[in-house]
Amino acid sequence: MIPVIFISGYSNTGKTTLVKNLIQSFKEMGYRVAAVKHAVHGYELDVQGRDTWHYCQAGADQVVVVGPGSLTRHQLYAQEPPFQEVLEMIEDVDLIIVEGFKKEAGPKVEVIRKGKERLPLGNDLIAVVSDEPLTQKVPCFANNDVDQLAKFIIDYFSL
C-alpha cells in the first residue's frame, strides 16, 4: 500500500503552499508523488463552453481528456466518493500527499498560524509546521524547513 501523509489545518494557514513545496522537495530527491486535494465546497474542473464541459452537461458519467504528456479523468458522482476509493485510483507513486480530509484516520502534519485555532488531531498528529516557535510533543518545523520536513516524512515511512 502506498504511504499517505495528510497536511491538515484551518483555511488560510498555508497548507497548499506547503504541499506544493513538499512535492518539489520530494521530486528533487527522486520520489514519485501524488497529491489529493479535498474541495469541501465543490469545484469546477472544466471551463464552460469547452468540449469536455459539454460532455459533462450532456450526462456523461466519465470524461477522459488525453493529450501529449497527460491524461485527465473526470469521474462524476452523485455524492462524494469514499476516501479509500480515491486512494485506490492512485498508482505508481512512492507517496500520496493529501490536503484536507482531516477526519480521515492517518498520520497528519498540522499547519498552524499565529492567532489561528488548532485542530483536534489526537494520536494522528506526527508533526507541526508553524510560523512561530512552539513546544510540542511532536517534531515542529518552521515554514521554510520544507526539506527537513520531507526527510522526516521519508524516515517516518521508511521510504
Structural notes for this entry:
This protein has 159 residues and is α/β, with parallel strands linked by helices. It contains 4 helices and 8 strands. It has a single domain (4-40, 78-157), classed as P-loop containing nucleotide triphosphate hydrolases (Rossmann fold). It has helices at 15-28, 51-58, 83-88, 146-157, and strands at 4-8, 33-37, 62-67, 70-75, 95-99, 108-112, 125-130, 140-142. The strands form 2 sheets. The protein has a 6-stranded parallel β-sheet with strand order 2-5-1-6-7-8, covered by helices on one side. Strands 3-4 form a two-stranded antiparallel ribbon.
List keywords for this structure.
25% helix, alpha/beta, 26% strand, 159 residues, six-stranded parallel sheet, Rossmann fold
Task: Write the CATH fold name.
Answer: Rossmann fold
Number of helices: 4
What overall geometry do the principal axes of the alpha carbons give? globular
Strand order of the largest sheet: 2-5-1-6-7-8
Identify the CATH architecture.
3-Layer(aba) Sandwich
Helix content: 25-40%
In the CATH scheme, the class would be Alpha Beta
How large is the share of residues in beta strands?
A: 25-35%
| Count of folded domains | 1
| Beta strands, count | 8
Radius of gyration: 17 Å
